[in-house]
Amino acid sequence: MSADREALLRELAAVSESIRAITSSLEPEEVLRLVLQRIKTLTQAEALSLLLHDPIRNELVFSATEALRGGSFSRLRAGEPQGVEAFVLRTGRSVRANDPAELRALGLTAELLAAGARGLLAVPVRCCERVAGVLRVDDRYDGGEFTTDDEARLEALAEELAGCRDPAALACDDEALQTLFSRIAATVPSEDVSLLLIDSEGRQRVLGVTRELSKGVIDGVRMPVGRGIAGWVAENRRALRLDHVRSDPRYWSGLEERTGLVPETMLCVPLVMRERLLGVIQLLNKLDGSPFTEDELRLVQTLADHAAVAIENASLYREARRAALTDDLTGLANARHFNERLPELIARGAPLALVVIDLDHFKAVVDRHGHLVGSRTLGQIGRRIAATLRPGDFAARFGGDEFVVILRDTRADDALARAGEIRDAIAAVECLDGTDVDLSGVTASIGVACFPDHAASAEELFHRADQAMYSVKGSGRNAVALASNYVQAPA
Predict the structure, then answer these.
(1) How far is the C-alpha of 111 from the C-alpha of 109, rounded, in Å?
(2) How much is the pTM?
(3) d(CA 400, CA 415)
(4) Domains of the chain listed by start with CATH number
(5) Which end of the chain is more exposed for a tag (fewer CB within 10 A), N or C?
């Protein structure tokens, strides 16, 4: 099989795997995360940004940005080699570890615990039948684990390095060092690279490139559609590949000034679905310094097109699910949603209160004015209940003229006070909005039960709150009761 055919098959396999991953989620945010991760892995870009389109202001908003910043090499005098480097120098063996336990098994300090490192790979550099250095990379750029293939590729590079020249001579050759570190970036993309060299007289040098992965460096920045290269792509719905970004007449230097990242090469593709612009994906600078290719542009556009379809499907699914879980009359959640939500919250173990609300004298309104007025009354009271909620609270129309409210992180005393506020809000409704229909007689009987004080399960909690509500119904209405403890509403 020819090399070109093998490369094509590898690309097809990578695209197929990426599409399966992208279409595996029904959450738009997860779809975007997956597509950005796949694009970063396949292109090895130094910086990647997702710009979402705000159709109201016709602007692009930076919503997810990652950039490897730095890249210059440093020379450091080394003391006695320690840890992994000392092990490789002593044994001539490579070390690949993605977990501290793998290092401890070799009798080494668990270096992965330092600075939140995820993994490391270190291989020997040989010269004249001696180990003349150690080539080490830390933290794969794509966030994955170092593999046996990574180890084999880095060992081959170290062998090639040793076969070309005395490795120690690299310490004085800036151009050769830049070439080497660019090749390492292309061979095993990682955030940190170091090279420990020992000359024939035992003198040691450590040379390294450290790239800091900065997330969200410009998130929230807005840019009008039409400004800059990304703005042109958004406006024209056409992908671009540029080998000399700063010489392009569409280039806007504002982002360079904000981030310090100097763009050299770029891929920029639109996210479009049914002629609707969703956003733009922008990639800058490959890790190995080479320009992006037409094949990479085609691959990124393919993934962006599939991502747009997946996002559209995920959004439709979310809308359908929201409709299935929402009460049409009030805009609150429906009973189905409540029956899902309460057990989920109880399973977390944090205290909460359940408030069960049944309207008083609502049937008289329906009997006098009809079901249409009754429905509008339920909608108006549902909005009054919603207005009393805090962030994190949950309200639903349970059925008929009965409502439920879940108060998170709430104990009995606070729950009674909050239930009293709901009762007052309902009692304050005097007439139906936009009409002269009298609703002053519509009040609420309210029962409250708390987890874990009154019940240990969702079913029992509802039963206790419902019992408390019926105790109010039988004792004058328009009041609040806690579990079995009746609390008379103020006059």
Answers:
(1) 6
(2) 0.48
(3) 24
(4) 3-58+225-322 (3.30.450.40), 69-214 (3.30.450), 335-487 (3.30.70.270)
(5) C
